[in-house]
Amino acid sequence: CYLLLIGTMASPDDLMSMFATMNTSEKGALLEQFCMVVPGVQRDTAQFFLEANNWTLQAAIASFFDSGGVHANVPSRNPLAEFVCDVTIGEGESVPPETRFQKTWRLRNSGLEPWPENSMLTFVQGHPMHAQPYVRVPPLSPGATADVSVELQSPAEPGMYVSSWRLCYHEGVPRYFSEEIWAVISVDVSGTLPLLQQFAATSVSHARPAPQAAAPPAPTQPLVTHPYMPDMTTFGSLANHSFGRSPDRPH
Questions:
Q1: Distance between CA atoms of 76 and 165, rounded to whole angstroms?
Q2: pTM score, two decimals?
Q3: Where are the alpha helices (DSSP H) in the chain?
Q4: Rounded to an integer, what distance in angstroms lies between the CA atom of residue 143 and that of residue 136?
Q5: Neighbouring C-beta atoms of residue 49, cutoff 10 Å
Q6: CA-to-CA distance for 130 and 151, rounded, in angstroms?
Q7: Which of 92, 109, 144, 174 could form a Cys-Cys staple with 168, CB 3.0–4.6 A?
Q8: Smallest Cα–Cα separation from 187: which of 226, 212, 160?
Q9: Closest by alpha carbon to 70, among 41, 46, 47, 44?
Q10: What is the pLDDT of residues 44-69, one digit of tens each?
């Protein structure tokens, strides 16, 4: 068995001698040594095989070549995402004109790494439907799911409208890590947007106030007189009406 070593062919004895001089447990150094023994290997690939072999360099390199060498099918360590389902507003759902609503998608982290801290869902094409250009999303752990929402408003004119969004993070420029996900609506005056959605999208200024506790009944006896008002009992039948307490005036 022969391996390509720094542009030359190395025998197993040469490799064994090299491994004997690579006596380190520091992960960064092991990663560098892997890349030195296997020129041209991607660092993500080297790290994958080192982690899979408990950071044992000789076992990691052997596993790398057993898996096909440079043609090995190695899972990507870049952030990845997949669409799970529409939570609100199914594709083509009918919405009345100029109606605010919330579109929610369920997404899963399908990669090996958490999503970056600065991840966001960004509008990329179609009709913006009065939306913000992006919304922040949490740094989701591998295998976890999250519901991601944007606030939209249907256009005034009837018809079909499409809005397209993608997950990305920024490293000077946007780095997209999901396929496009869609908000597709049909604007119709007889739209059947669920009433609950309309309530959820109503602005705070239109929210109903919280119910207030009932006020205790005002006392009816005795009637309180005021220095600037005559005694109410002197007005005969008017005494049967409750006028309540008058505001105090300064003396």
A1: 22
A2: 0.53
A3: 12-21, 27-37, 43-52, 57-66, 195-201
A4: 19
A5: 25
A6: 8
A7: 174
A8: 160
A9: 41
A10: 788 888 888 888 888 888 888 888 77
- DSSP structure class, residue 228: T
Q: How far is the C-alpha of 152 from the C-alpha of 160, rounded, in Å?
A: 15
Residues sharing a CB contact under 8 Å with residue 16, sequence separation 6 or more, in sequence order: none
What is the token pair recorded at 66? 């057993």
The token duo for 5 is 């070593």
> In angstroms, rounded to a whole number, what is the distance separating the alpha carbons of residues 56 and 50?
6
Q: Model confidence over 190-205: pLDDT tens digits?
A: 887 755 565 444 433 3
Q: For residues 134 and 130, what is the distance between their CA atoms, to the nearest angstrom? A: 12
**Phi, psi dihedrals of residue 73, rounded to the nearest 5°:** -90, 95
The amino acid that residue 236 corresponds to is G
- One-letter amino acid for residue 97 of the chain: P
